[in-house]
Design goal:
With 165 residues, this protein is of the alpha+beta class. It has helices at residues 2-6, 60-73, 78-89, 94-97, 113-130, 142-153, and strands spanning 14-19, 22-27, 46-51, 54-56. It has one domain (2-158).
């Protein structure tokens, strides 16, 4: 996936996952908004999600909330989820990593587990490759991985989990 992101041309949608009525695609805009003036346009990219007729840019909270909902419905899978998302952090293919867990029937979730895994992978790449500011974390995506682990492993209610300080 990292190679796909590095090779993205400007202003062309690149589909990276499609199943039924869900698609994840990437876009590298040639012109950045004023908000991203410090970003390198060659490293900047957008992550888009299509669900049925809805098309939007998901953010990190989608991954975190989804994983927390899953662990609420199946707490016995905490270790497997932690290991799978650690492996995704270390560069493993989300579709292969989540193959066994995908068979589980979770009562609560936002998206298909593979979609969440691919989004997590893309957010890691976004922080590692495209993050323009100085980070207190090395590599910068360690910050996001810490929150993934927190939302899976923490027994607190979701209302009491503090995120993105």
């Amino acid at each position: 996936m990292f190679k796909i992101v590095m090779g993205l041309p400007f202003d062309i949608k690149k589909s990276v996952y499609k199943q039924r009525n869900t698609e994840i695609y990437l876009l590298r805009p040639s012109k950045l908004s004023a908000r991203f003036k410090d970003y390198d346009p060659k490293k900047n990219f957008q992550i888009w999600l299509i669900e049925g007729k809805r098309e939007f840019k998901p953010n990190h909270m989608r991954v975190l909330i989804d994983l927390n909902l899953r662990i609420r419905s199946k707490p016995e899978l905490k270790e497997k989820l932690l290991l799978s998302f650690d492996n995704i952090y270390y560069g493993k293919d989300p579709e292969k990593e989540l193959l066994e867990l995908k068979k589980e029937k979770f009562e609560y979730f936002l998206n298909d587990l593979v979609v969440i895994g691919i989004l997590a992978q893309l957010f890691h790449i976004e922080q590692e490759y495209g993050y323009a500011r100085e980070s207190k974390f090395d590599p910068p995506n360690l910050f996001f991985q810490g929150w993934i682990r927190e939302f899976i492993d923490n027994p607190k209610e979701i209302d009491n989990l503090v995120c993105y300080s």
